[in-house]
Amino acid sequence: MKNKLITLLFCGFASVLFSQTKKPITHNDYDLWKSISDVKVSKTGKLIVYEVKTATDRGDGYLTIYDAKTAKEKTFKNGYKAQISPDEKFVYFQRKPNYETQRLERKKEVKTPKKEKDAFFVFDVSKQILIDSIFGVKNYGIPKKYGNWVAIQKAKDEKSKEKPKDTTVVIKKKWNEEGDYLLVYNVSNRVSDTVFLIDQYVFAEENPV
What we know:
The chain has helices at about 1-20, 25-30, 100-105, and strands at about 35-40, 45-55, 60-65, 70-75, 80-85, 90-95, 120-125, 130-140, 150-155, 180-185, 190-195. By secondary structure, the protein is of the alpha+beta class.
């Protein structure tokens, strides 16, 4: 009888102790939960690319590039919008500003033209390294079937300009400074060209060369 009483007392004490240490789930806990999204697989299945981000979109995520042939894996903080080149030699992606920067910009009500912009990166699959980066990027696109061409939409450079003391002086803007522009870039040979005053573009369905 005495042993049974001790056992009951111990179980009761353990139950009270457990209930005291149990912590309710908060929004901070939700921020720790991760989810996989935007999964892309190359034509031969050699490359698998996916994003990992928080369930609430609060906090920083990362992009994972996995080579199934070599079992090598690379991760890049805040990487997203990844695309695999048709020949599987490169992976392209953008990197967004970190969460804290975006939060402060929202808090200070920073206007869109002055917000920190994305960066664009080129990952060489065989070398397992980043071989190029371009900053101030809005978006980019690649052909679906051929080549290693990339069309990168760059945001207009917001440079502070001093106002002239004499109000009669008129500052003439160059036509190519009026808005965003397109950078057409060949990753294989590093040849590039710039096209101004462009809003939309499309790649040819088949290789024109």
